[in-house]
Fold:
Amino acid sequence: MPDDTLSHDLTPYFSMFVEVGIINQIGSAFLEARLPKGLLVSHFGVTSHLSRGFDGATPLELARAFQVAKTTMTHTLGGLEKHGFVELRPNPDDGRSKRVWLTPAGREFRDDAVRQLEPLFQKIAERFPPDQVSAFLPGVSEFRAVIDQLRDEEK
Amino acid sequence: MPDDTLSHDLTPYFSMFVEVGIINQIGSAFLEARLPKGLLVSHFGVTSHLSRGFDGATPLELARAFQVAKTTMTHTLGGLEKHGFVELRPNPDDGRSKRVWLTPAGREFRDDAVRQLEPLFQKIAERFPPDQVSAFLPGVSEFRAVIDQLRDEEK
DNA sequence: TGTTTATAGTGCGATATCGTACTAAATGGA
DNA sequence: TCCATTTAGTACGATATCGCACTATAAACA
Structure:
């Protein structure tokens, strides 16, 4: 009997998803409390993603990156546009599509938010140093990559 | 200069929260796709929590456990009650409060959902074995505990 | 004991997110 | 080239979540 037909103890997956759910809630609350009124984690997430080498991404690419419905991304981008943080221009490669570009104001919004978080992260660092996070981060990333792949396969 | 005044590289925290956000989205989608129509991750989360030794918790305790607003928990419990999955009874120890009790139907809903997830988790196990999750899970839990504590201290 | 303050739960309005359905453009095949 | 199918984005309605305000009860305390 080959290894991969052995039954596994699946409880670690349950525990992992539970922990992740709580960390996500806490992290979102931390961030949102430090954003200007009316701006949300989703807005920060998009500007941050664009600023990290994905400027000019399409709305659909952004929706996939964050694993949200494309209608949700339309809504989020609308908010960012209203604040002047992104510009949507036609996609020259595809008439159905658009490309999202970060404005200077958008970059500033993102950088400000990062700065606002730093004191909190310093506090975390006193109790849970960053290299301890670095120790398990590759594993967590790999896990994310695997389930990301599986999700795509589920169509 | 003592260690804890040294400046740290905080990027692992950012990366961690980003990964956690995506894992949470994917995990929620996985679960929700396997729940009966009209029932959500929040409903599963509460029944699962109750069944794991917290039966009789108060709504506020549940809101804190999941880090959601107490009005959100009121809403979630309303849905569970409508489906007959929980019962809310007065809290004999506190006239302002209630206690939430899982019904047999609620326990079955939870167990069914777990069963529906098993094939998927087996698939994950083929590509990312559970003991690899177990390897970093304690670190992740500890991280969660630390930020949980910090959140409480933020008032 | 009476009064002030804090806490548990809910009603309500605002909005973020999602699923469905639609339009327009691209793609693939006859 | 024409038509069927797929894909990108959006409009719309449903609902999950949140913040604020309110009521009832408990706790603190003069």
User: Anything to note?
Assistant: The longest strand of chain B covers residues 94-102.
